[in-house]
Amino acid sequence: METEVLQSATLAFIVSGLLCGGLVGLILQRGRFCMNSAFRDIIFIKEYNVFQAYLIALIIMLIGGNALADMDIIHLKAQTFYPVANILGGYLFGLGMVMAGGCGSGIIYRVGEGQIASIVAVFCFLFGIGATTNGALKPLYDLLRSFKVAGAEGAPYTLYGFFGNTPIVKWITIAVFCIACFAFVLQGKPFAFGKQKGFFWSVAGLLVGIMGIVTFWASEYWGSPGFARGMNFTTPAGETMFTFLTGDARSKFFPMFDLFSFKVTWGEFFYIGVPIGAFISAKIMREFKWKIPPAREMLTVMGGSFIMGFGASCAGGCNVGQALTGFTTLSIGSIAATIAIILGNWTMVYFKFIRPMGDIE
After folding, report:
1. What are phi and psi of 355, to 5 degrees?
2. What was the pLDDT predicted at 1?
3. How far is the first Cα of the chain from the last one, in angstroms, to the nearest whole number?
4. Count of alpha carbons within 13 Å of 361, Cβ hemisphere only?
5. Residue 314 contacts residue 12 (beta carbons within 8 Å)
6. Among 195, 279, 266, which Cα is nearest to 26's?
């Protein structure tokens, strides 16, 4: 049997992944940017600033990502619409992220702050991904993703595709969506900067969006020629786990490279860089501290993060992979998964926080 010959990983390949991940981790930590909080705060405390920061990042990635794609600098690929997997997986991920106390990006950046619960959450998230894509839950994963919907000539469904699959229609759709989002962002007074320890919410959203564009380019240039994988956490998390356990990232969608006989991907170094960047930021801001939660909370975190791993695998990505990177392509699958994540988040917020408060009253 012939051994697959892989391109060797270069120093630029490794450094670019670590640097992009490190910068994202620093921004997430210093900006307290977690999409679990963004969605949760809307119904729990009627606070919209973190959600508005998310919208700023999305606007930047929509405009910048599609502009670079139209200039043939990067190549975006919309995900296929798996209605059952996208919706059910997204909903379960939304439930799990409330239980885990953080989204896919939130739990990994908080590892850099010394939060033991986040460390446990990351391991259980990885376990959930592995069990779903390569373990006991794979038959269920395959079943859920056996239902798919494609557009004309098998192309993925996109939001603008309903009105006409042309560049003009695409940009009109982007313009209408971004104008509506920006009008909502303005209600939060994004330019009313005040004194605070970290990044102001609008600055955090701006920087996350910029890094989304940078990561689109860097991931394609160094790690995936012909396809900008961008910022995502679910697939790189699984690839990292399999590399440590088997020496093979087992990537189904992205090129693997040879590193001392290990099969690795660019996304793995991005993923590893996030907690490193968050740690540097936390140390500078004097926010690094080992924190051990109560045993009961730890059990909830373990269960929630495992559900996150299953849900994200089925949905084709987590909050960042679908609600930012995937959404940039205007894929119906990514949009459906994003809406399902938000609804799942709100459901668990109601049962975990809002309803108990009502019972006390």
Report:
1. -65, -45
2. 36
3. 69
4. 6
5. no
6. 279
Residues constituting the chain: 361
Spans in the chain with pLDDT lower than 70: 1-4, 151-154, 359-361
Structure confidence by residue, pLDDT tens digits, 276-323: 999 999 999 999 999 999 999 999 999 999 999 999 999 999 999 999
Q: Dihedral of CA 79/87/202/110: which sign? A: negative
Q: How far apart are CA 65 and CA 76, in angstroms?
A: 8
Name residue 61's amino acid. Answer: M
Supply the DSSP string of 85-145, one letter for each residue.
HHHHHHHHHHHHHHHHTS-HHHHHHHHTTTBHHHHHHHHHHHHHHHHHHHSTTHHHHHHHT
Domain ranges of the chain: 11-360
Buried b (16+ CB within 10 A) or exposed e, 219-243: bbbbbbeebbbbbbbbbbbbbbbbb
pLDDT, residue 4, reads: 66
What is the C-alpha to C-alpha distance for residues 27 and 218, in angstroms, rounded to an integer? 18
Cβ contact 339:327 at 8 Å: no
Question: Which amino acid appears at position 8 of this protein?
Answer: S
Q: Which helix (H) or strand (E) holds 262?
A: strand 262-264
